[in-house]
Hints:
alpha/beta; 15 helices
Amino acid sequence: MNQRGILIIDFGGQYTQLIARRVRECGVYSEILPYTAGIEEIRQAAPVGVILSGGPASVLDADAPTIDPAVFDLGVPVLGICYGMQLMAHLLGGDIRRGDTREYGRTSVTVDDPTGLLKELAHENTCWMSHTWQVVRVPEGFHVAAHTASCPTAAMADESRRLYGVQFHPEVTHTHHGTQLLKAFLLDICHAPAEWSMAAYAEQAVKAIRAQVGEGTVLLGLSGGVDSAVAAALLQRAIGKRLTCVYIDHGFMRAGESDQVEEVFTRTFPVNLVRVDASSRFFHALEGVIEPEEKRHIIGREFVEAFKEASAKLGRLDHFAQGTIYPDVIESGQVKGSAVIKSHHNVGGLPAELGFTSLVEPLRMLFKDEVRRLGLTLGLPETLVNRQPFPGPGLAIRVIGEVTPEKVRIVRESDRILREEVAAAGVKASQYFTVLTNAKSVGVMGDERTYAYAIAIRAVTTDDFMTADVVRMPWEVLDRITARIIGEVNGCNRVLYDVTTKPPASIEWE
Ligand code: XMP
């Protein structure tokens, strides 16, 4: 470690990256090492503090992940979280037992020692627990700093050696004052310098890319989304023109998006950009298809084919890059994984098939909002970085029924109007778009009978996109949007507002 930072030792816990993220939020540099790293590697890193993560095992298992107890004699503070605390207790001579009840979820923790690590916690503090085993006797030199109704040691401390343990998870937002606890550990106990920033991360990532790629060339598939755009900006900074980006325009992007991508990566971050207009192949492949899953499947397949064709024309490039972010890594079940490629719709299986030397994933450890902040730090335009989520298959799944260029035009134009009006009115929404319902109805315009499509407006608020509430859109805004859509977009004569929450409906219609 080339800065005075924190070392997080990973015992396979599901929240290890979240710990790293919280440490970053406190402005402190951190690195994660697997528990298999030797004590020499830990010593060489010269951290100002160590955090032992949670993990799924029991410390009493024969093959339980463990660590050299010399870590407690490094002279720097150590904080064990969940499994990390149990391991600390076990290695230093305490007792671990299986609890009578498994504590899971929000739990009230009673603080017995409101100093040091726990100084910002309330006497009764809601904390997030997830454990079966518990520390029933703390090691010599430690005292119990907190307990719960069923767990005698919710926190323990040995102030003289600066060793601390918490059974609950301070990194999870459900733990009240969890960030303050981590801050107390990092800043007051470890005296870690709070000088880490996104700009520092960018520099570090640039160095790591250069080390991985050497003098080689890199191919990146630009999807038009935020993640691959930020990855491209970072790679451009690291290797400039040795980066080639292939942007497959499937013809289902929102108004102006493809041009914006081209503008940014030819002017602001000049790379070798190959923009492929593949819309005719996508429309052709989707002819007559109405079933949503079949549409998605076909789009995924055509994407891979179009990408293969484009990269074959480029000749061999050395490395393959993609904008995988941490939630993708979790979702694809490869938290511990190495270079397995996730089956993303636009790159599935390509790197192995095309014989790349390595996979470059510079955003692999970042969460979505961190990726957005990194994008802004690098100088990507706000309009590109802060866009609302957009599904990979694009407008094709916002046209119900068969997808035709004419229907995509209608949904694209109406969507542009909706976005303009929502922005102008300052309506707060997490995601909003229009859908071409495929229902035609009779109308009357300028004394003429019309028979045209009904457009639906979908606008939701949500934190995690797993559940969503409907935006209470002011009538006057809906009036304006409706008047503009009917007036400006040929082919539709009716506008509907979708008032269904998720569940029961999903956010997208297909
Ligand atoms: P649903 O429709 O499942 O959508 O309620 C939840 C969120 O996921 C987005 N979404 C996708 N994002 N590829 C993506 O990258 C996809 O195929 C896809 N399908 C849905 C959707 O826009 C919403 O934000």
